[in-house]
């Protein structure tokens, strides 16, 4: 008779639409197998503080598939491999991972399902080496992991961004304006690319394709010349001007507190200075992290969650769940963090955008 | 036999969800009466340039009820009573209204239906005095006209703002943050009040209720003390600190280019400085002007449009259409612009908010 | 010092979007006044069964404004003034209201806030006469109460119906079909009228305006003749053919089990038989009762809830809360149930529909 | 210098969300290459009637990405390889394909891009053999083609179905009812499976997994026993009872006109008879074909359209465009129609559903 497992679950990093669906799938698949599941609040640090344990039951996951946020909370900045401590005005990092591992075993857990992004995956790999059986579920709405075709939350983020671009369209047009919309994506432009094409943007700026503001303005003026007196520019937060970001930021920004704005206000001002066209910007920011997951993301999240428990039942510790249309799969934790996901600059989607007439400012 | 009217229609000012529905209702009600309708692009200035005339037909308004924007465009900055002219580096204002009136009659129009906001209504009143038979349809998503219970576009703007607040909720919570959301409303806080209550805001800042940042922070810290480590602040763009806006803006803002931000970034920074809590802001801006009108706004817009033609058929020139639940009505153009709409500080809705525990920072 | 009230709350009848928002507002306004609130499950019968009592706290209403359904459940068919009992194959009705009243007082309640529709209001009036201090909150998504301008849930039902009509439009057109959409409204056609106009229906059938199928078909063939090869018919579930419903039902229906369909399938078949045009139907049914309330309905619900507690604090027992744009109000329970809400056949909205070219089949 | 192509485009079969986006991408990619594009109304038969030709321009595809329906119409029942003719009360099929091929060449077309489903693909294969250079774009919202990972419109259909299930949930619960929801999928259950899981259905009935009504009822009664007094059953229109569909249909249906209902009403009645629980049904039908495409479907549609023109530019006639996450691809027309898409009964998604506790009635 197979062992009835006692599983711990935690989540790390920022919010992502679909988190609750993952938790529901984890819990139902585990309980339906006769397993126990215990949620650990506060991420990995919850292992050091037993008041943070929450048994997950049929009732606690009822009806949560469609809710944004996470019933476990997602707030977690702590890394047990190096926790930040301030003493006498000085900060230092203390490794408390041995204590975490000890507690994990003392609490009778057979394995940990860790839902998290880049940072959490690295911690997971570290704790796995120290003897905690871990299965990771990737959580990054930027879709920036090469090892999985898609991550949950991405489709919802794209939908939110696309709807925003839709709304800005008619106003940009009626006011003869340039609207610059900043979407998420520090190192990876999938959200900007997908929402930009779906929303009918005229210019899309990605971290992967360095742009010059001159070519951006050229596109805007070309449209002007053909009687289109407005333009929509979608830029990733990590959009990269040729020659480096800082110098351009300095040009228009000059001491601007980054927390008050983003890249888009700068780009808008640069465009206005060069083209003389009224330009406005909006930074969508956290709007993209919240809200109901799309049906696509709900299904994907549920599949991630169910697969993680299936992998646990088969003893596939030390792996991260991955998705491809042909079915869920897995990679080792080391492979998972080896290679970031990037938009290949010659991929079919970029090519489609160019054929539709979109400029990447290059 | 009643005369078959030839009606002109123009729109002035910014975009508003429902504009197309008004145009469709105008056109269908007019054509079904055997009237003619001609759209004038570029607002009142279109009267000076006959290339801007567009006959409106059954086909031209087909399927547009649910579309944002306006098939006539809404771009209009010109006032024929004082059009801005630049000569030798100097600007002056020229009154070309006599020419506009002459053209209006020469083109054989029996009346003009003018859809517009505050500014447009004033021009309408001026042209009416010069002999153009005008019926006005109010267009202000801020709902800031005392003479009508509601204007079209307002419900959609509230819906957009509320959905944004919904999305920010889970993220604010999971990150233990204060989120400050700025919505439209320069002089009138209806959008902030309605979306703030519907979205479950903790603090709502209105132009009508002067606030102090200290009381705002008090509310946030009270929540902190009771275990709620996040807060949502909704502020109107015209939110008014006690003692005047400028001084507070200067405190945190200091030379900040207004086009790069708004009130919300300032408020967020002030909160962060005083409470030590991480605070973020988002300025929804034009998101609120675009997009599909809600079913409520579609119906309201269609009613405004149909009523305007009905009034024309009854010769009620010189009036603006108004809405109240008991039926559409009208006021004279003079009454229409006499009194701005404001949130009464002791109204039932404000009272409801206070009873729910919302702070107005007062 | 005013008394700290101990309030009971129950809900009766079917689901309505906004119920949870009413409960949240009731709870917060009560707790913020230092009152106690206890939810009674199973409607009035819950008064007979103390296992059905649920104290409502800040935590129990957290985040529920935007959720469909009701945290108290809404299932309630029992009337303590005449509860149905089956004995020896015979059914009879037993009055258990004295017991309910006794329990109410024994449990120390100062008043009952009863949220419910037509049937519940009648029970409320009955129990009020027996000495239970009651404030009623109307709950009918049909908007069929003359004493209040609008009831919560109606706007959401209209939005759901309008979105459905939107979706059917392109398909009706691409398939050259007649689509008949049945919406709620047994005795009152507000949902059909509002969604029909907002959704661009060609024919709208209401309980208030008797139609003949011949005139409906005439409209469809007129459209055909002018090159519009499709039509959208929106009918209320209580749409009333001239000469009575039964005969027409029999003509096309003939033994059809009513639970398998509704009015729309019959109307569709009648149209197909008479016009030769392919006709399809859809009965939206419960789709209109569920789902997230619109922001409009959330605000309205919160206002209803807060006002009910305000009225309790002022001792206004025996009244129902009402809404009008100028502010919340109240009527006595007797007035509340005296007059049903109907669409006035010559109201401005009906007139608008006719001017847009909509046929009512009359 | 590569030849400037003159392309014809037609669409066949039913409506699908994304059709307009495909047309926009086709047109923009073609015009940006200096090609000409001509839309042919009425599908293949439009080749026999030159009044059906519509040149596609930048203006004609402006802003249509987000619109449901198709600017070309989709109504097309004609097959030039065997067109139905009625003569003297007798019908026969006439092959007019030679004429269609002749016209195609006479009109100077270099190739035809045919957007269509199963039937259209077969005609395309036939016409390709007769010498028309064809590139096909698959159009089936059922996602029932084995040769492409996904087809456009499917994601939108799943979203519409999931939202409907969401709305039915709270009402099913508050009324203690069984709700049976019928979604599209005559031979292929992807829509039912995806929306059923995402919407939290308790039972999902697919064409691929024969069910018995007894096991369906068993699941419902198991839920009843554990205190869940409601259930949601999602069934594909082609859901297949073990032992054949007809007998079960006859049992409950008995002469019921299929156009008045579907499978769901029958299943609901069977459940009610066996469990004694009140059961209701809704047939979503055409709701799933209409409406705005989701951002996912918009992007997918644009990619399909752009790839088709790219293939034309490379002379890849006789192929159908396919999608996989690694990029767009192609198969020959023969391969395209060789194998229908089915839900593999042991696929990961079915397994996930079972692990979540969903019953397939098997």
**Bulk shape of chain A:** elongated
- Radius of gyration of chain A over all CA atoms, rounded: 23 Å
Multimer state: homotetramer
* Domains of chain A (count): 2
CATH class (first level) name of the largest domain in chain A = Alpha Beta
Query: Structural class, from helix and strand content of chain A?
Result: alpha/beta
Nutshell version of this structure?
4 copies of one chain form a homotetramer. Helix content of chain A is 37%, strand content 19%. Chain A is an alpha/beta fold.
Question: Can you put this structure into words, describing what you see?
Answer:
Four copies of one chain form a homotetramer. With 362 residues, the first copy, chain A, is α/β, with parallel strands linked by helices. In chain A, 37% of the residues lie in helices and 19% in strands. Chain A is built from eleven helices and 13 strands. In chain A, strand 9 (203-205), helix 6 (213-225) and strand 10 form a beta-alpha-beta unit. Residues 246-260 of chain A have low confidence and may be disordered. At the C-D interface, helix 4, helix 8 and strand 11 of C face helix 4, helix 8 and strand 11 of D.
